[in-house]
Amino acid sequence: MSITAQQLAELMPDATQVESDEPEMESSLHYVQLALLVSCLEWLWRDRNDFFIGANLTIYFNRQQLKNKDFRGPDFFLIKETEKRSRKSWVTWEEEGKYPDLIIELLSESTSEIDKTVKKDLYQSRFRTPEYFWFSPDTFELAGFRLSQGKYEEIINNDSDKMWSETLGLYLGIYQQQLRYFTPEGKLVLTPEETAELLAAQLKALGVEPDV
User: Fold this and answer.
1) Which residues contact 32 (CB under 8 A, 6 or more apart)?
2) Beta carbons of 189 and 181 less than 8 angstroms apart
3) What's the confidence (pLDDT) of residue 19?
4) pTM of the model
Protein backbone atom coordinates (compact mmCIF):
# COMPACT_ATOMS: atom_id res chain seq x y z
CA MET A 1 0.00 0.00 0.00
CA SER A 2 1.47 3.36 -1.01
CA ILE A 3 1.34 6.39 1.25
CA THR A 4 1.75 10.05 0.40
CA ALA A 5 4.18 12.38 2.14
CA GLN A 6 1.23 14.26 3.66
CA GLN A 7 -0.27 11.04 5.05
CA LEU A 8 3.11 10.07 6.49
CA ALA A 9 3.45 13.45 8.18
CA GLU A 10 0.01 13.08 9.72
CA LEU A 11 1.00 9.73 11.20
CA MET A 12 4.10 11.17 12.86
CA PRO A 13 3.91 12.25 16.52
CA ASP A 14 3.53 15.91 17.45
CA ALA A 15 7.16 16.98 17.18
CA THR A 16 6.64 19.89 19.56
CA GLN A 17 6.27 17.29 22.33
CA VAL A 18 9.45 15.37 21.54
CA GLU A 19 11.70 15.25 24.59
CA SER A 20 15.37 16.16 24.56
CA ASP A 21 17.71 13.18 24.51
CA GLU A 22 20.82 14.73 26.01
CA PRO A 23 23.01 13.10 28.70
CA GLU A 24 23.81 14.85 31.97
CA MET A 25 26.75 17.24 32.16
CA GLU A 26 30.03 15.36 32.66
CA SER A 27 31.20 17.21 35.76
CA SER A 28 30.20 19.92 38.21
CA LEU A 29 32.54 22.31 36.36
CA HIS A 30 30.56 21.77 33.17
CA TYR A 31 27.24 22.23 34.98
CA VAL A 32 28.33 25.47 36.67
CA GLN A 33 29.74 26.85 33.43
CA LEU A 34 26.58 26.07 31.49
CA ALA A 35 24.37 27.62 34.16
CA LEU A 36 26.57 30.73 34.12
CA LEU A 37 26.27 31.18 30.36
CA VAL A 38 22.50 30.84 30.53
CA SER A 39 21.85 33.01 33.59
CA CYS A 40 24.06 35.91 32.50
CA LEU A 41 22.50 36.20 29.06
CA GLU A 42 18.96 35.71 30.36
CA TRP A 43 19.57 38.48 32.90
CA LEU A 44 21.21 40.84 30.40
CA TRP A 45 18.35 40.34 27.92
CA ARG A 46 15.60 40.16 30.55
CA ASP A 47 13.50 42.78 28.73
CA ARG A 48 13.61 40.91 25.43
CA ASN A 49 11.21 38.21 24.22
CA ASP A 50 12.71 37.43 20.83
CA PHE A 51 15.26 34.71 21.56
CA PHE A 52 15.62 31.14 22.79
CA ILE A 53 18.52 29.64 24.72
CA GLY A 54 19.03 25.90 24.57
CA ALA A 55 21.09 24.31 27.34
CA ASN A 56 22.07 20.65 26.86
CA LEU A 57 19.03 20.30 24.61
CA THR A 58 18.58 18.13 21.52
CA ILE A 59 18.15 19.73 18.11
CA TYR A 60 16.11 17.60 15.71
CA PHE A 61 16.69 18.57 12.11
CA ASN A 62 15.13 15.67 10.21
CA ARG A 63 12.10 13.53 10.92
CA GLN A 64 14.04 10.27 10.87
CA GLN A 65 15.72 11.33 14.12
CA LEU A 66 12.43 10.79 15.92
CA LYS A 67 13.08 7.07 15.45
CA ASN A 68 16.85 6.92 15.03
CA LYS A 69 18.66 9.76 16.80
CA ASP A 70 22.06 10.08 15.15
CA PHE A 71 23.10 13.36 16.75
CA ARG A 72 23.00 14.91 20.20
CA GLY A 73 22.56 18.63 20.60
CA PRO A 74 25.02 21.36 21.60
CA ASP A 75 25.77 22.22 25.21
CA PHE A 76 24.63 25.81 24.63
CA PHE A 77 22.92 27.40 21.68
CA LEU A 78 21.16 30.68 20.92
CA ILE A 79 18.41 31.28 18.39
CA LYS A 80 17.35 34.86 17.71
CA GLU A 81 14.16 36.26 16.22
CA THR A 82 11.99 33.55 17.72
CA GLU A 83 9.44 33.32 20.52
CA LYS A 84 10.90 33.14 24.02
CA ARG A 85 9.09 30.21 25.63
CA SER A 86 9.81 26.84 27.18
CA ARG A 87 10.56 23.93 24.83
CA LYS A 88 11.28 20.24 25.44
CA SER A 89 13.69 20.19 22.48
CA TRP A 90 14.37 22.26 19.38
CA VAL A 91 12.60 20.81 16.33
CA THR A 92 13.61 22.75 13.23
CA TRP A 93 10.56 21.90 11.11
CA GLU A 94 8.29 23.15 13.90
CA GLU A 95 10.32 26.38 14.19
CA GLU A 96 10.18 27.80 10.65
CA GLY A 97 13.34 25.90 9.75
CA LYS A 98 15.47 27.95 12.14
CA TYR A 99 18.89 26.68 13.23
CA PRO A 100 21.13 28.14 15.98
CA ASP A 101 22.73 31.53 15.41
CA LEU A 102 25.45 30.71 17.93
CA ILE A 103 26.69 27.48 19.51
CA ILE A 104 29.07 26.88 22.42
CA GLU A 105 30.41 23.41 23.21
CA LEU A 106 32.03 22.67 26.57
CA LEU A 107 34.97 20.40 25.87
CA SER A 108 35.72 17.27 27.88
CA GLU A 109 38.18 14.44 27.47
CA SER A 110 35.51 12.21 25.91
CA THR A 111 33.93 14.80 23.57
CA SER A 112 36.78 17.11 22.57
CA GLU A 113 37.72 15.34 19.33
CA ILE A 114 34.10 15.14 18.13
CA ASP A 115 33.42 18.78 19.07
CA LYS A 116 36.43 19.90 17.03
CA THR A 117 35.72 17.78 13.95
CA VAL A 118 32.34 16.09 13.45
CA LYS A 119 30.24 18.73 15.20
CA LYS A 120 32.22 21.63 13.78
CA ASP A 121 31.60 20.31 10.27
CA LEU A 122 27.89 19.77 11.01
CA TYR A 123 27.43 23.28 12.39
CA GLN A 124 29.30 24.74 9.42
CA SER A 125 27.81 22.75 6.56
CA ARG A 126 24.34 21.62 7.70
CA PHE A 127 23.28 24.09 10.39
CA ARG A 128 25.04 27.06 8.78
CA THR A 129 25.44 28.48 12.28
CA PRO A 130 27.12 31.91 12.00
CA GLU A 131 29.33 31.51 15.10
CA TYR A 132 30.74 28.48 16.90
CA PHE A 133 32.83 28.54 20.08
CA TRP A 134 34.29 25.84 22.28
CA PHE A 135 35.64 26.11 25.80
CA SER A 136 37.18 23.63 28.22
CA PRO A 137 36.25 24.20 31.90
CA ASP A 138 39.22 21.97 32.77
CA THR A 139 42.08 23.38 30.65
CA PHE A 140 40.50 26.77 29.77
CA GLU A 141 41.06 26.21 26.05
CA LEU A 142 38.91 28.69 24.11
CA ALA A 143 38.43 28.99 20.36
CA GLY A 144 35.87 30.72 18.18
CA PHE A 145 34.85 30.55 14.53
CA ARG A 146 32.70 32.71 12.27
CA LEU A 147 31.06 31.56 9.05
CA SER A 148 32.52 33.30 6.01
CA GLN A 149 31.59 32.25 2.47
CA GLY A 150 30.36 28.90 3.76
CA LYS A 151 33.47 28.06 5.81
CA TYR A 152 34.44 28.68 9.42
CA GLU A 153 37.25 31.15 9.94
CA GLU A 154 38.93 31.46 13.33
CA ILE A 155 38.04 34.53 15.40
CA ILE A 156 41.17 36.32 16.57
CA ASN A 157 41.41 37.63 20.13
CA ASN A 158 41.61 41.37 20.68
CA ASP A 159 44.31 43.08 22.73
CA SER A 160 42.42 42.14 25.92
CA ASP A 161 42.44 38.46 24.93
CA LYS A 162 38.71 38.42 24.20
CA MET A 163 36.72 37.30 21.14
CA TRP A 164 34.01 39.47 19.61
CA SER A 165 30.68 37.79 18.88
CA GLU A 166 28.65 39.57 16.21
CA THR A 167 25.65 37.42 17.10
CA LEU A 168 25.66 38.44 20.76
CA GLY A 169 27.00 41.95 20.35
CA LEU A 170 29.31 40.97 23.20
CA TYR A 171 32.82 39.72 23.80
CA LEU A 172 33.58 36.23 25.09
CA GLY A 173 36.58 35.78 27.35
CA ILE A 174 37.91 33.99 30.40
CA TYR A 175 37.40 35.52 33.83
CA GLN A 176 38.38 33.68 37.01
CA GLN A 177 38.75 30.44 35.03
CA GLN A 178 35.24 30.65 33.57
CA LEU A 179 33.88 31.66 30.18
CA ARG A 180 32.07 34.97 30.56
CA TYR A 181 30.42 37.68 28.48
CA PHE A 182 31.80 41.21 28.28
CA THR A 183 30.15 44.37 26.97
CA PRO A 184 31.51 46.19 23.89
CA GLU A 185 33.29 48.47 26.39
CA GLY A 186 34.96 45.44 27.98
CA LYS A 187 32.94 45.34 31.20
CA LEU A 188 32.00 41.99 32.70
CA VAL A 189 28.35 41.02 32.22
CA LEU A 190 27.15 40.24 35.73
CA THR A 191 24.91 37.47 37.00
CA PRO A 192 21.74 38.48 38.90
CA GLU A 193 23.55 37.63 42.15
CA GLU A 194 26.59 39.73 41.25
CA THR A 195 24.31 42.61 40.28
CA ALA A 196 22.58 42.43 43.68
CA GLU A 197 25.91 42.34 45.51
CA LEU A 198 27.19 45.34 43.57
CA LEU A 199 24.02 47.29 44.31
CA ALA A 200 24.26 46.42 48.02
CA ALA A 201 27.88 47.61 48.11
CA GLN A 202 26.94 50.88 46.40
CA LEU A 203 24.11 51.49 48.87
CA LYS A 204 26.41 50.83 51.83
CA ALA A 205 28.91 53.28 50.40
CA LEU A 206 26.11 55.87 50.44
CA GLY A 207 25.31 55.03 54.05
CA VAL A 208 22.16 53.08 53.19
CA GLU A 209 21.79 49.63 54.72
CA PRO A 210 20.12 47.39 52.11
CA ASP A 211 17.26 45.13 53.13
CA VAL A 212 18.33 41.54 53.69
Assistant:
1) 137, 178
2) yes
3) 55
4) 0.84
